[in-house]
Fold this protein.
Amino acid sequence: MQFAILGPIEARRPDGSLVALGGPQLRGLLALLALDAARVVSAERLIDGLYGDSPPEGAAEALQSQISRLRRRLRDGGARDGLIEFTPAGYRLAVDPQDVDVHRFERLTGRARETADPAVAHALFAEASALWRGPALDGLADTPSAARLAEARLAALEDHAEVRLTLGHHERLVAELRELTREHPLRERLTGQLMRALNGSGRSAEALAVFAEIRERLGDELGAEPGAELADAHMAALRGATPAPVRRVPVPLTGLVGRDGELGRLAEALRDSRLVTLTGPGGAGKTRLAVAASARVSGEVCFVELATTTEVARAALSALGLREQGVFVPGAAPEPADRLAAGLADRPLLLILDNCEHVVAEVAGLVRRLLGECAGLRVLATSREALGLTGEALIPVGALATEQAERLFAERAAAVAPDAVPAPAAVKRICAALDGLPLAIELAAGRLRSMSADDVADRLDDRFRLLSRGERTAEPRHRTLRGVVEWSWNLLEPEERLLAGRFAVFAGGARLTAVERVCSIPDTDGLLAGLVEKSLVEFDGGRYRMLETIRAFCGEQGEDRRAAHAKYFLDLARAAEPKLRGADQVKTLAELAAEHADLQAALSWSVTEAPETALRLIASLTWYWWLRGLRNQATPFADAVLAALGPEPPPGLAEEYVLCLIHASATDVDIEPILRSSDEPLRHPYLFLLWAFSPRTKAKEGGRLAARIGPDAWSQAFARIGDGLGAQYRGRITEAESHFSAARDGFRDLGDRWGQASALEKLAEFADWRGDHSRFRDLMDESIRLADALGAVEDTADLLCRRAEGVLRAGDVEAARTDYEAAAVQARVAGTPLTLARARGGLGEIARYSGDLDAARRWYGSALGLTVDPVTGGETRIHLYTGFGWTAAAEGNLDEATELHQEALATAIEYANLPGAAQAIDGLAGVLAERGEDERAAFLLGVAVGLRGAPVIGNPEVDAVTTRVQARIGTDKYAEAFERGRETPPEQAIRTTGQRRFTLGS
């Protein structure tokens, strides 16, 4: 019989069925005996456990009665006689302790803690944890025993988490540890483990937010500082906020054979030259050599595959993990080459550009620019021809020497046919026939599964005698490679040839489901396995792919499947699009990113051959491009589709046509009449957002068009974002906050991270203005966590700056410094100079508040040079000019301060940014106060509040000006001037500042 007390108290027969134990007192008595199974428990101990501090009269007799009833219950359940023994010292449950779950739990956890193998420990802890079915001794009055067991369980969970962190289970642990830290909010070890799990999942911003929460909680509730374990986790998270060094290099499926000499020369060339190019024919092993060389290079390395693209800068951005633009940033994205140069400006990195031969001119132009602007950059290119740049070091990669070629053949042959021993003479003939080309040798070795080496040699001899009669103008080794690919093709079964020819339509490889749909051949799975065995197709990570050389040949032989390919990927994109607006957002983004090359290929074909398919595909991919910061990718496709379709949308595709207009580089077609032609709810509700941020002519009847926003939950939440922005720009903050709160709730119900983060950042801004620092911090922490989950590094850096501004106003200088420094590092790596400017400006604020005005000037000066973006740089320039202005005023340079604040105000007016104008006017009020013009200063302080729609709480300089002016002119006079300013209409108020260069909203 088995006994369980780790949860509801139970006794089970050998067949697993429950024994009827009766009421809570009998269950409690059994539990007390089971806690000390096989040991005597005194009557006093049993009475204390059953009744606590208030035993009834006659407790000893009552205990005897309970024991008798329990014996009878157990006996009726099939237990043997004598299971509960009586001795002069008390009572004993006469069972093996391992028949009681608590003792099994203790044995398993003890063994787990003793073993040195984390995998074994993980299994033991998991088995122990599975024994728990709820709180121990559930329903029993024995509080001390229950508390002891609860602590034992918690300690085991912590030890188990430690083992799982060692095993790298970071992402799987996050949800469990969050739940545990909610139940035990002051448990430092658990919180430290949660931080480490978040950090290991790439969510360092969330880990820092967790640390901030527990630091505040420990201080408020215990008056204590975080201990060593938490401090270590905090430092690890800070390091994690700095993106890890890039090592994005493919892992070869097989080892490199016979290239030691070339590797040595390449390593030397990379030390001495910033541009090295490996040249040689296809199949010579240039890519494999470049990858092997990268393993010997310290620091950051990034591999860019160019074989299937003509957009070199965009491919490099993608390989580096850089977005063309942030997810939450309005306006046009910069050119990919500009973005790439910014992202590599301060990074010592080796950039490997592979397969450059079809884009040599584009690669040469980009490399020339990057090497000129990025001092720490080195480039390793592979190409059939040189780039032709000054300073380029060339390393030819030719045939393998005879001995090395034979060794390569032997190794690959052993992998496919381990029991075969190829005849040395045949191997020599094969390698000689194939000119020592590694790829050709590997293809030939792949045939040994079904042929002997002698057969392979004979057939190759026949094949190349035929080849020698034709294609005499082709480069010899290129002719050899094509010949061996064709030879491998001819040896395929007819069904295999059919599949290989159709499979070549995939630009970026494919999963089995895609191959089955597009190729439409029975037994696709089995045929693919055969192509893998014959080395014509590779299989890795759940995806099948062809080497580009083989794909090009197979594509020439097979039938055209591009229409089926485009249809499949249109269906895929249409099915994925709604998931990008819900709880599956992150997962769906990753799935679409894996198919990016084929989505682009489908568009490239359909823009000319099937424009309406392209139109639908552009619409379905629009939100994917937005969330991945790839908005410019649609432009060339949109231009081509519009050229094919003309100025009128196809029937039933008006909405898709409008999205195409928004993406296009230039068009005279008016969007508004097309949208007014229907009253149906929008199928792509984000259309209005894209239109607002595009250079297209804006709506004249926005209210009428807004009626097309659908009744679905996402559209309604999205509409509240727009309503909130409109209310904020008009200075109606209470109304705006209500809209953003509703939007956040709607997006939260849907699980849409983008929507939640967008609303939260605005709500945090309002909380900051009110001086509600705790709410501000909570909202910003959540916004950063959501942006982090979307992989939006650029936006996370910007949000870190925003959080730093608020915590600095709250007086937490060190937390602000940490955020600004982390943001600066992320911005440098992400190549976002505007965010880097904002972070440097923030560090200038910290220096100014601490009285180090020289350092403040240096920070502001270095930041202003980065804010050249004409679209999105305005707000940052406003912050920098006003910060610089306050610095000049503190130095006594009041004329300079006035000019700087006026510059900030001019920028705010140019961008119709009323909160920015208010910030500048606060600064001008400070200058007037320094000049002794107190009534004008009070008036401008009122103007600022009127423009902003609310006062800003916690600005030490504005607070100081307010206090000083009130003290000098009196509270009543101050209030009268302030109220006059607050009630002044915006345009009139701005004219009183002396600002005449612009009119509001120009």
